[in-house]
């Protein structure tokens, strides 16, 4: 997947830069930049791609990404169709990979952060107590000044480096090829797929958006994403289904159709192929996990 290179800003190349997002819906294209990026979604939901990983996101999502890792957070269609002022809130922290090395040369201090940055090259999502403690610090960091802000950020780094409560997002095989050429084309295709996954999507219509013949587009898409068009669409749909299963409001039959599938057989087949279990098992796992957490 080709992605757009974005200049984050000169000040952030040497220190930390904190951005408070308050908008109607997320609009950034699929992009990458030279800094590490820590994202906390306060209010919002939709789909995100980090490297070659596609999944849903909900309030509380806490993800750390290393330099030059392509990514995008895209809201569900309802955010654009009926925008609500301030319905998307997020805190984003940008910082250079060698940030701590600029403050100290002690290997004992630097080594754990180096390991964290190495993990972040694939993107990592933090959960559990680590997620809760980091969110507490992020919720107040925009109000902090000078040394207080720096100390809070170092505490966040400490929590992340010490944590085992995380999951990798991108695959170990993922590599980002930086080719600015065709950025606009692949982004148009990407946006179309993410915005229309719940309906029928034909190869012909997507190839037309890319201004290519269907056979040429299939080769092009596979080369730049590492996936077939069918696999890509199914990962988007299953990611959306996971969000609906987590919300635990709709029946599995309703979720099937809401996610773009026309029958339960196909829904179960692709869900199991991507998640390793069927929708019913996934929902049971979620409920069991929620019940366990409620005991603490």
Written description of the protein model:
The protein is of the alpha+beta class and 296 residues long. The protein has 2 domains: 4-168, Jelly Rolls; 228-293, Homeodomain-like (Arc Repressor Mutant, subunit A), CATH 1.10.10. 46% of the residues lie in helices and 18% in strands. The strands form 3 sheets. It has a 6-stranded antiparallel sheet with strand order 2-9-4-7-10-11. Strand 5 and strand 6 form a beta hairpin. Helix 2 (107-120) packs across helix 4 (146-162). It is globular and about 55 Å long. The model is unreliable at 1-12 (pLDDT under 50).
Structural descriptors:
296 residues, 6-stranded antiparallel beta sheet, globular, 11 strands, Arc Repressor Mutant, subunit A, alpha+beta, Jelly Rolls, 3-stranded antiparallel beta sheet, disordered N terminus
Short description:
By secondary structure, the protein is α+β, with helices and mostly antiparallel strands.
């Amino acid at each position: 997947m080709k992605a757009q290179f974005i200049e984050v800003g000169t000040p952030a190349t040497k220190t930390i830069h904190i951005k408070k997002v308050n908008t109607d819906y997320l609009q950034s294209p699929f992009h990458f930049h030279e800094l590490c990026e820590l994202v906390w979604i306060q209010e919002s939901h939709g789909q995100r791609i980090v490297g070659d990983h596609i999944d849903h996101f909900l309030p509380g999502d806490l993800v750390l990404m290393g330099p030059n890792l392509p990514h995008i957070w895209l809201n569900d269609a309802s955010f654009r169709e009926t925008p609500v002022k301030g319905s998307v809130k997020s805190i984003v922290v940008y910082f250079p990979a060698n940030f701590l090395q600029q403050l100290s040369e002690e290997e004992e201090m630097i080594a754990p952060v180096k390991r964290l940055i190495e993990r972040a090259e694939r993107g990592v999502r933090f959960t559990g107590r680590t997620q809760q403690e980091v969110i507490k610090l992020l919720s107040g960091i925009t109000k902090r000044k000078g040394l207080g802000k720096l100390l809070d950020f170092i505490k966040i780094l400490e929590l992340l480096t010490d944590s085992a409560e995380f999951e990798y997002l991108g695959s170990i095989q993922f590599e980002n090829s930086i080719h600015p050429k065709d950025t606009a084309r692949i982004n148009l295709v990407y946006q179309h797929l993410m915005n229309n996954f719940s309906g029928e999507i034909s190869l012909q219509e997507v190839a037309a958006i890319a201004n290519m013949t269907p056979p040429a587009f299939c080769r092009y898409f596979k080369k730049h994403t590492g996936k077939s068009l069918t696999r890509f669409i199914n990962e988007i749909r299953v990611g959306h289904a996971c969000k609906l299963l987590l919300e635990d409001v709709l029946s599995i039959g309703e979720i099937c159709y809401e996610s773009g599938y026309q029958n339960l057989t196909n829904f179960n087949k692709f869900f199991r192929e991507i998640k390793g279990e069927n929708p019913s098992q996934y929902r049971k796992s979620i409920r069991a996990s929620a019940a366990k957490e409620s005991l603490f």
